[in-house]
Amino acid sequence: FPEMLSKPKLTPLQGTLDVMMKQNVILSCHSNSSSPPVMYTLLKSNQKVSTLVRSDLTPGLFNLTINSASDLGEYQCTAEKNITNGLKYSKSLNFTLVEQVSKPMLSSPMPQAKKGQNVTLSCLSKGSLPITYTFFKGTQAISSPVKMQRKEAAVISVFINSSSDFGTYKCKAQNSFPNISKYSTGFNFTLAEERSHSPFLLIFLGLILLIFIIGLALAIPFFIIPSYKASE
C-alpha cells in the first residue's frame, strides 16, 4: 500500500501574521507521514521560494525576511513523499504589515495642580491601531488598559489628594506585537501656589500710588510754587 501523506499545515512560528518591515520570520510546514523522508516546498503567489527534505518527522522550517511590500504576498507550502502520492497543498497565509508603537507622549492640560483637584492625563503614541495604553504612578498601574481604535489620545482622570499624588506618572503603549511596548518620559504635576489675593493686592497698591502721584501734582501749585516766589 502506498504510504499516506496528510495535507500539510503552514504556520508562523512567531505566532502571528502581523510583521514589521525588516523583520525575520519563520514559517513551519508540517505533514503527518508514517515514515520519512518528506519533501517540503514553500510557494509565494504560486512561485517556488525554497525546497527542503526532512529525513525525520520534524516540520520543514523556512526563514524569510520582510524587506518590501511584495514580501507580504500569499504563501503556501506543499508536501510530497513520492510521485504516487502526488502533491498535498496547505491553506494559504498572508502577512499583514504593522507599524510598531512609538514612544508615547504623556501630558496634561493642567500641569499645575492643588490638593483636592481633579486633573487629566493624556497619552498618545503612533503606530498601527488598535493601541492599548496603561497609566502608571511610579511602578504601579493606576488604570485598566485602555484600547484605542482611533488615532486619539487615551485620557484618564486623577484626583490630587495628597503630596504623594505629585509623584512621577508614566504611560505605556502597545499594539499587536506582544513583546514590544514603549514607555513615555516621566511627568510630574507641580503644586500651584495660592495666589487668589495677589491681583487685588497689586490693584490696591497701584491705586494708592496713583492717588499719591495725583495728590503730589495738585500740591505743586499750592505749596511749591508760592514758596519759590516768596524766596525771590
TrEMBL record:
<feature type="domain" description="Ig-like">
    <location>
        <begin position="8"/>
        <end position="94"/>
    </location>
</feature>
<dbReference type="Pfam" id="PF13927">
    <property type="entry name" value="Ig_3"/>
</dbReference>
<keyword id="KW-0472">Membrane</keyword>
<keyword id="KW-1015">Disulfide bond</keyword>
<keyword id="KW-0732">Signal</keyword>
<keyword id="KW-0325">Glycoprotein</keyword>
<dbReference type="InterPro" id="IPR003598">
    <property type="entry name" value="Ig_sub2"/>
</dbReference>
<dbReference type="InterPro" id="IPR003599">
    <property type="entry name" value="Ig_sub"/>
</dbReference>
<dbReference type="Pfam" id="PF17736">
    <property type="entry name" value="Ig_C17orf99"/>
</dbReference>
<dbReference type="InterPro" id="IPR036179">
    <property type="entry name" value="Ig-like_dom_sf"/>
</dbReference>
<feature type="domain" description="Ig-like">
    <location>
        <begin position="104"/>
        <end position="190"/>
    </location>
</feature>
<dbReference type="InterPro" id="IPR052598">
    <property type="entry name" value="IgSF_CEA-related"/>
</dbReference>
<keyword id="KW-0812">Transmembrane</keyword>
<protein>
    <submittedName>
        <fullName>MILR1 protein</fullName>
    </submittedName>
</protein>
<dbReference type="InterPro" id="IPR040878">
    <property type="entry name" value="IL-40-like_Ig"/>
</dbReference>
<dbReference type="InterPro" id="IPR007110">
    <property type="entry name" value="Ig-like_dom"/>
</dbReference>
<feature type="transmembrane region" description="Helical">
    <location>
        <begin position="200"/>
        <end position="225"/>
    </location>
</feature>
<dbReference type="InterPro" id="IPR013783">
    <property type="entry name" value="Ig-like_fold"/>
</dbReference>
<keyword id="KW-0393">Immunoglobulin domain</keyword>
<keyword id="KW-1133">Transmembrane helix</keyword>
